[in-house]
Structure formats: structure tokens, C-alpha cells
Amino acid sequence: MENSQPNLSPEQIPANKEDGKMQNSHIECWNIRDWRNVSEGCRIILKFNFFPDVFNVTLEHEDDNTFVMFFYIDTLKVTKQFEIILSAENTDPRKTSPHLHNTLTFTSENPKQEIKLPNDFFDQLTEENGFISSNGDLLLKIEIIEMKSTSTESPKPPASPLTIPIPQISASNNPIINRPIFEPAPYAGLKNQGSTCYMNSILQSLYFIPEFRSIIYQMEIPNNVSDTENIPLNLQRLFGMMQLTKGPVSTNGLTKSFGWDNHQVFMQNDAQEFCRMFLDNLEMKMKGTSLQNAIPSLFSGNYIKYIRCRSVDYQNNKKEEIYDILLDVKGVNSLSESFEKYIETEPLIGDNQYDAGPEYGKQDADMGVEFSEFPRVLFLHLSRFQYDPYSNHYIKLNTYFSFPEIIDLAPYSIDKETPNNYELFGVLVHWGTIIGGHYFAYLRTTRENRWFEFNDAKVTEVTAETAIEGSFGGVANKESTSERLYSAYMLIYIKQSCLDEVFRKVENDEIPDYIYDYIKVKEEEEKILAQQQFEKDNTVNVSLINEQAIEYYAQNNEIKIDIPLTYFDSDDHGLTLNLQLKKYDKLSTVYEKAEKVLNRPKDRFDLFTLYDGHIHYHIPRNSEGLFGAIQPLPRGLYMREINDEEFYERSDIECDTETESESQNQTNTENDENEHNNNENDENLHANPIHNENEIGNSNNNNSINKTSSLTKKYLEDTHIPSEIYLVFVLSYIREMKRAPLHFAFTKRMYYGDDIYSIFDDYRKFYNLPNDCELSAYYSSKPTKLLKFDVYQQNLSELINRRNGVFLIIQLRDGYLSKYGINLTFKDMTGQSFFDEEEEDEEAISYVSNFLNENPKHASDYLAFIYQTVQIKVSSPNAEKLITIPFRVSFHQLKLFAANVLQIQYDSKYDTMLVFPNSDPNFINTEGNDQEITVEEAIQNFLPNNRSDKKLHLLCLVYPNISYDCFNDTLMTRITDGISQNCQNTKDSHGRQQLENIIYQLFPRGMNCCEIICCLNENLEISEPLRIVANNDKFAIIVNDFIPVDEMVKWKLRIEIVPQDQRIIESNQFLLSVRQVMINTIAYYVEKKFIYQNDGDPYIFKFYADEIFAEAKERIFEYRKISPDVRKKVNFWLQSPSAEEGNHLMLDEEILSNLLLPGCFLVFGPTNLLQDTPNVYSNFQFKQQALKIFN
């Protein structure tokens, strides 16, 4: 005996966060009637969904007063551990007694676990502690928390859960709705405008020197400068925002006042260079005011350069002002060592003696520096970027360099006796290499030893060890040999005796009133912008589609449901409607908005989330869950209309459910025998929901729909749980429809217990077919595969296979289309018919749509036929096309299809077609078995890598009335005709040069270049001397007369008349390859980068040994007809074939012959080409536009 009395509706609650790990949890409430009278051997069953698993919970009365609770998980794939808490329905289990708390582990081998309840457990259950309702029902709550998986491998995500996992989040605790305008942080960060991290680091460092901030607030604002060009005003605004708000704060106003545009803010610059330039600019603006000495009093110091004679009493001293000190890191390990190196004396002896004037003459002397006064705020610049003479490059030194928190600078001063202690308050770090990187700052913001990392907009507190020792550079750990990419670049020390005055607190009252007013207005603007941004971030434009989209794909030979690709174009064929939703919309609101867009009552359609081509969840109509809580967030919703029969069936069920709920008090008098019969019916419904019939084709069950509705209604009444809605998409395979044999029929809305035969009854009814017509069915296990549907072996649950939205393809016999007058006209969402006219793919010509004589007999064969295809670029000497062809067709059919699309005269009985893959000189040799060998077998060794976007290119050459056997042991040679009058230079759509006349010639293996020229000379009828020039797109060479064709075919070849001036080469002359880049062509954009093209192939040019390059350059310009305006914008460089030897930028006064290396060649192009391609021409160092503050 089983009694299944589950509760009204399961509640999915938000995940708990415990020990730093997010854990899924689920609560199920269980209302058990007449539980005291459950006899031995009886079981009470509860079944629910806990994504991605299906739980079956059974409470069984074993013997005496012993109850056991069994937990069983369907389709468990990996080992999982769950925390099980059993308590009263409306109480907190952690504060309530009695309650049970157990941890269970489930494996794929043992998916069933049990909890044995104590004998006295039920004796403790009372109405007072919440376990018993007023009418005597047992009210249990089961809380299940998924613990960390013990599986050794990560579980794969399920195809789709059975119910939608939407947390019940209220508006008060919703993190989406109540997001603050600014992220909370201890201090305000600064927004990075592109590459302004160097500026942000300096600005933060200066801001947290309170005396400097106070000076800025005191600056006078000039009236003769506009606000946008006023640096002091915008700096005050910036500091005021940083002091009064939590940020992050924009620096746009400040950079605009510098006179910078978008180009400047995206340029990488040096932090120390900006610091020096910025302070100089401010100091200049303070001249003539009461603050004219403010900047020097903070940052200025002095040192003395001296030269002291050793033997006479004579010295030369020069006092200089310093704002920062550049210290070496190369060859030293610490700050103290670097200071010692800085003040080291240099002996002036021998030939380098110092001239002490007329009185003393030349004397041995020592030259050095001594610090007379250090600044109160000391900036130390570590020289990590240095020139390396061995590589002829600038490099970055990330070597180990330590620095202390407190340093005594007295040993490096003139007064070495008086201590001069400085404390570390800032470390500016550079992460990256010489090519590029990122700056951020570690700062002590107060006199307390608390460090913060200021990384643009992000501000976080760090340990002193992270800020200091973590910035020393060197290797990451003892086991590592590679150096860190980040290390300290600037250090900020402040004199201990001046800390009180430097760190005097800056009160808000010091901020000027006009800055307060500006910030108030700015905050209001920020709030409005933040609200607008919040609305934008939480607005989701979702495409509503219905069954027309399925037909759209079916007509294109695809079995799937998704937003059509035309959705992204202006014309979507009426297949989609836009629905604008908010992430904080309740799911009930989603139906209300869809109701307005669809112009139909919300109770006459169901909505399902659509993601990645699959139906994921059915959206409950009256749920209080939030749309934004659905993960993944759908980009589309599938709308399925509810027909009249389903609508009234649902209404009856809901009415009966309400009646049942109102009469709960009378259920205690129900007869046990009736309960037993009902439970047996329910068990049978789960176990075998399909009624046995002899065969689908002879089913005479005319009342199956009514019968199914009755069973479904009874099932709902017994379980009191809203059953999950499943969708079955029914398609037809009509072999007679040559172009598109797949057609959408209808969507079947089903429940777990529904009779699957009803689909076939509905299908006959839909097409007005007799009941005895024969049908065969397939279901889609994945988009590219169909499986035969065996009605005797499979039920609805196996068909669904835990995925909503399964496809069932029913095949009509040949002749049914005309015999029963089936109409396949289809309407879009606007009511217009579509696909009335055949449409061809503009990109690829389909073999199936254009060349296939008849469709395969079975739907499964057809799907495999159309999905297992390959796109190939086929060409002849005069044409080129992109085709799509199935792997299964014969290579003979490929040749016929290629001849058809390329418009080649080809008779397979008498002619031979040779197919050359990817410019290979060897043709695909099938040994004459084209009919037996498939396309897949023929081309599988030539297909590009799956990760490549390249397509296989097949060159098709037809030789009339020649046998296939005549072509053994030959090689195809592709030679550009550079001679004929009709050989004209043309450009393609990207501006790339194309040569129209290509010679395709087969030569026997072993034939040399001289013999090939003789053969071609006969065809071209040229009496002039000829040569073959080979190139690899980088440089060209003249092919030696005795080079065999086997070697020549590896290059691009061009036959040309030997120029008159190159037929005799004197001893002071030489030939060199020249390549012209980006003069007449344009760059085109591919995969987020510009591709630069040659202006034609490289060519051979004659040079003179003793001429300066300016003369050679002019001759090249004349030969290539380069206009005078373009000549001014062109650079030449001598390029080596090896990257190690690098490239040399040619200067007009140089002599080319003195610079030649073996294998080098000349390239010329726009002056900015080298700078735009540093990865290609790495040996050229270009100085980008100098950092400058314009105002």
C-alpha cells in the first residue's frame, strides 16, 4: 500500500553561502493526512526536483513503531553529498526541537540512502511545536543542502532541469534592485580612461600627501581661462570628489584641462615623467602668488656636484636643485647600495686629469656628489628601463631590489653625524614589459601603518608585506627561476621630523564653497546617470518566438528551436517579436508584458525560456520569482498557444483542485480500499503511461485524447502538485518535397502521465489522415541525429530524456501529399506566408538544394546526409565558387557538381577532371574509382584544422578526350603570365592586386626550368628571352635554369620577359628583390586586426654598387609610377629573412651595397607602417608623441 500526499508547491530558496562556497539548497513541505493510521508496510511517497536531480523521498512504516525515510536520486551522474534537515513546516530547524540533522552521500552505484527515525520521534510531534495542523495533518519540512562534490572530475551541466530554479527574492533583499550608485570602498578610486593608469597612480600619491592637497585647495582660480582649460579648478574638483565621495571618480575634466583628446588618454606614458611635468606646471601657475614656494618647500632638495683636487687645496662646487633622484637597480640589491653607488667618486687621473686653472694646472682629482638637503617629500625613481647594447633594445629590469620602511639618509649627506630618518609612504609599481604594462600604487594614507592598493577604480587594503616586500621584484619563489613581471618603480619617503605638518588633517571646511556646489550638482547628475545605467543594465530585450521559428529552421533542413539568424538583420521575416523586460520583473509580470505584445490573454499561452537552441524551463504564470534570477538569462522566450481543449481542461483541473482543497476536513473519512485503488492507478501511471497497442499505423483509439485528459486530471487530483509541462515538437518528413522535406506540424503540450499515442492521433487529425494510415516516427537525440522511436520500448519520460522541447519526426509515405491534399503553406507572426519562393544561400551553393535528384528514403538518413557536409571552395582557371556538399556522396558526384556550378564542359565518359587540393601540385588520385570513393574519403587528408576558418580549396582542371592514366607521374605547375597583352592588374574588394591570366600546366617530374621555358615559349609565341621568377610573397628570386619542376612547384611562379636593362649585369651592378607594401592597396579588417597587403608580387630590380640610396629610390619611384605626393610619405627598409638579424631603415645618404647581407631584400611602404606593426618590425624603435600638458 502506498499513499502519495505531497504538498501544494515546492519552494526553491536562495543558495546559502557557507565557508566561502556557494551551496544549493531546497526546501520541500510535506502535508501527510491521516498519518497516525498508516499500517505496517505502507509507504508515503514524495517526488520533487532539485536541480539538476530528481529526488524521490519515501516514508515507510516498517514494523512496530519504526519508520524509515528513504532518499533516492534519479539519473545521478557523479558522487554528491547532501545535508538533510527534517523539521516542522513553519519553523527554523536550527532553533526548533525536535528536528533531525543528517548528512548523506549518494553515488551512481548507490543512489539510495536511508534515515531511520527514532522510535519516540512521532511522540514528540504536537500542534504547539508546529508539526501538527489544526485538522490533525502532519506538517513536515525537508531542507536539502548540496555539499561540495566528492567526485574527482567536474560534473557536466545537465541538459535541462524539469523545473525552473528561481530563488524567491523579495524586493527588499534583492541585490539587483538595491545596488548602490558607487561600490563601497575605504577611499575613492580613479577611473581609467584608456591608458591613464600612470596618471592615476601619481594623482593618488599626491592626494594622500595632505599638505599638498591643502595647497591645491588654496590655489587661486584664474578668471581669464575657461573652466574646461583651467587645470587648478579641475584639480580642486577632482580632489574634492575624492575627499567627499567614495568614487570611483572620473579624471575626464582634468585631462581635458591638460588639452588632451582621446588620442592622448590612450597613449602609454611614464609615471615619473608625468609627475615631474605635472608639478612643474602647477609650480608655474603659482608664480607671483602667496603659494609660489609651496611646491618647492615640499618636493625640492639640493645636492652639490664637486671636483676636489688631491694634492692642492682646490675644489669646484656646483649646487643644483632636485625634485626626484634616479637610482640604479642594475648590479645592486638594495636601496642603501644604490645610494652608495650614487655618491661614489670618480677619479680624474692620468689622461683624464682635472684642469685646476692657471694657478694649479692639471691635477689628480675626485669628482662626486653630496646631498646638502633632502626634500621633505622624497621621490625616488628606480631605473628599471635601460638600454641593452647587446640586443640593441630597451629592456625592463625586474631584478630583486629591496628598500626599508625607514631609512637614515645621513650617510649620503654633507652632515653625516645628524640622523636624517625617512619613512616609506608610497610604492608605485609597474607591471609588464618594455612594450607595455600597467601602473598601480601602494600607499599609506595616514601615519598608521595601514597600506592600501590603489589600482585605478579599485581600492583594497593590503598587508605591509604585500606592499613592500611583494614589490622587491626578483623571482616569485625559491622553486621558480623566472622573475616577476611587477616591481617597484617609484618610492615615496617622507621625513620623520616633518610628519606632523605634512600629515595635518585636511578638514572638509578647507574645500572651497564653489567646489562644494559643483560636487552637489555632480552628485545629482551621477545619481541620474547611475539610475539610467541601472535601468539599462537591468533591461533585457528578449525575442518572442513561436512555432514559426521551428518551421523556419525545418525549411532550412535544421531540427532546432532558436532565434533565427535574421533576427540580427533588419528583416526577420516576422519570426520574432521584441519583448522588453527588467531583471527585477516578477515572472507574473513577464506574462503581463507578453500579453500586451502578443495581443492575446495571458491564460491562453505558456512561456518557456530559450537558450542556446534549447527549451530550458517553463515559466510559472503566477510566480513571484524574478526574471533576472533565471540562469542562464534567456535571450529568447518560446510562446506556445493553449488551444480551447487544453484551456478548458486546465480550468476544470484548477476548479477541481480548489474544491478538493476546501473539502480537506472531510477526507479523513475516506475508505482505505479506495485509497489503495487510487494509489495503484497512480503507480501504474508512473510505471507505464503508454497503453499497449499493436502498432501505430493501425491504432483505432479515437478517444485517446479524452482518455489522456481524464488520466491527467486524476493524476493531478491525487498528487495535489502542478505537473511539469513538457513540449513535444512534431515535424513531418515528406520525401516528395525535394528542396525542403522537413515541415513543422504542431506542438504537443503533455504531462508526465499522458498517453504518447495521442501525438499520432493528433497528427492524423491535423493532416486529415485516416486512422489506418501507416506512420513511422523518429525522435531527435541531438540536433544532428535521429533515432527510431519504438513505441513498445519507450515511454514519454524516455523520450524527453530530461530535456524539455524534444523533437518527434513523423514520416509520411510517398504519395500522401497529393492523395490527402496536405497544405504546407505557413504563416509568420504577422500572418504573412513565407518561403513561397525558393531562396538560395548567397554564400554557398548547396548540393542538396540544387543537385540532389531525390531525398533519402528515411528521415534519419536525410538528416545525417545534410548535417555531415563540408564547405569547399572550387575553382577553375576562369571561375571560383563556394559549395556545400555531403560527405556521403561519391567523388564522381563532386566533380559533376563542381563542373555544373563552375560552368565547365565536362563529360565523364570521355574527359578527365583532375582535382588539386590547396594549390598542391599533386592531384587527388582515386585510381579511377571516383564512383566508389566518397567525398569524405577523398579529401579527409586535406581538410584544414577544425579551429581554422580556412576552407578547403579544390582546383578543377578538365582535359578533354584524354585518359586518366596519362597523368600519372606529373605535377601541376601554376604560373602567372606576366607577358600577354591581356594580363591586366586588377583589384579585389579589399584593394588587393589580382592577375587575371594564370597558366596551369602539367609537366613530367624531373623536367627542369629551361625545358619548361621552352614549352611555354611555344605556347606564348615570344621571341624575347624569358625567365621564371619565384616568390613567397616576401621576396623574389630568379629560378636557375636547371632547377627541376619538383622544387619549383613549392613557390609562386611568374614567367616574364627579361627586362632590357637586366639582360647583361656588369661587375658594379646587382639584382635585388623589391616588395611594395600598402601604396596602392588598402588595409582590410580581419579578426580584429588590420592586414596589410602587397602591391602585386615582389619583383627583381637592378641597383648600382656606388650610388647613394636617394638615387636608387628615385629610379624605383619612376619604375613603379609613384606620384610625388605619395613619395614624401614612404620609407624604405632593408629586411633580413631571419628575425634575429633584424631590419635596417634606409637613409638617403647611405649606399645600399655596403649594407647587403645574404638573403636580404628591400621593402618600401608608408612611413607609419613600421610603427603600426611593432610585432613584425621589432628592431625599429619609434618614439611616440611626447607627453605634454598643453595648458
Describe this structure in words.
With 1191 residues, this protein is an alpha+beta fold. Among the domains are: 123 residues, Apoptosis, Tumor Necrosis Factor Receptor Associated Protein 2, Chain A (Sandwich), CATH 2.60.210.10; 101 residues, no CATH class; 202 residues, Ubiquitin-like (UB roll); 91 residues, Roll (Ubiquitin-like (UB roll)), CATH 3.10.20; 92 residues, no CATH class; 91 residues, no CATH class. The chain has 28 helices and 56 strands. Helix 1 crosses helix 6 and helix 14 packs parallel to helix 16. The N terminus is likely disordered. Helix content is 22%, strand content 28%. Strands 14, 19, 22, 23, 24, 25, 26 and 27 form an eight-stranded mixed beta sheet that branches. Strands 1-5-6-7-10 form a five-stranded mixed beta sheet, covered by helices on one side. It is flat.
Could you list some keywords that capture this structure?
USP_CS; USP domain-containing protein; Ubiquitin-like (UB roll); disordered N terminus; alpha+beta; 1191 residues; cysteine-type deubiquitinase activity; flat; eight-stranded mixed beta sheet; Peptidase_C19; Apoptosis, Tumor Necrosis Factor Receptor Associated Protein 2, Chain A
